[in-house]
Request: fold
Amino acid sequence: MNYDVIIIGAGIVGLASALKIKEHKPGLKVLILEKENKIAAHQTGNNSGVIHSGIYYKPGSLKATNCRKGYNMLLDFCKKENIHFELCGKLIVAVTKDEIPRLENLYQRGIENGLTYIKKISAEEIKNYEPFTKGVAAIHVPYTGIIDYKVVCEKYLNVFENRFEGEILLNQKVINVIENEKETVVVTNSGKYKAKIVVNCGGLYSDKIAKYTVPNLDVKIIPFRGEYYTLSKEKSGMVKNLIYPVPDPAFPFLGVHFTRRVDGKVEAGPNAVFAFKREGYKKTSFKFSEAWESLTWRGFQKVMWKHLGMGFGEYYRSFNKIAFTHALQKLIPSLTTSDIVKGGAGVRAQACTQAGSLVDDFLIFEKPGVINVCNAPSPAATASLAIGEAISNVVFKHL
Reply:
């Protein structure tokens, strides 16, 4: 079967890319291949549903530019398609005085990224936003919102299929990608599909798929599981909207925080622990070949040694509810272990270079016939339409 473009992966980035390609060039024949029996099965379907403002990201980075552009595109799409979302705002809270310089740096980043309505909050003013939260200073970010990204994905697919006559095939696990002069062939467990250009949006397996056409790929996807607790129904009122700590700039995770979801539940977390399986959502999830591959990657070994103490701390909290509660009490001191119940988990696909750095920005490798998206971390969901548009432009260049 012959197509102009094949997208591998029906997460939010793959779906947005397919939608943008068809939106700009409706006449192209576009196919999405997904190995699961449903869309948004992994990273997209297990995230916390936050619409990110872009305050964290280095001005001028792909994260910053795509987040701000994608933010506006997402809100416009949701308004047009009647998708529910709330711009509820959030607090980023410094709990000790030594965090204030980092908080000030975040404020300056926000201003440079165009977030002109963010506001510095004093210790006394925090109560006006989050009555149970304590800190020495904070930033209020009114741009931040909440949404259900699975609903967004369903609408992306609906528009792609019904308005633009795109195609999707489920239960199609990619086992090879073969390039030749005229076309690229995607081989799945069910058949062969040919295209002028293939876009790899494989998420947790994006590096595996990329290596079919980039044998000397210098990055590997390392899976990190994020585990959540949920505030009990009786205590959900302790959090009005979203409460975040000041992130550690040495680590690409935001730290445990509180997120009110669109369904009214309040999530607490996540931690960030190495997952012994790429799609390992449980503590007991284990796949020897994948664990061995990650643990023997020289770059990840360097990361482990560098962050050994933090890593052990994350694992300790993973198995100890009291320790997890202590981490949450930095933001809400009156919270107790009985106030939280076990929630869900997600796995983040974190690209790690052989040199030992955790890639903090979007990472895309392009060549004639193949585009490999090998790192699309948060805020990829917020930025999905902007990323999709950028990918569509690369596709059109090669076509």
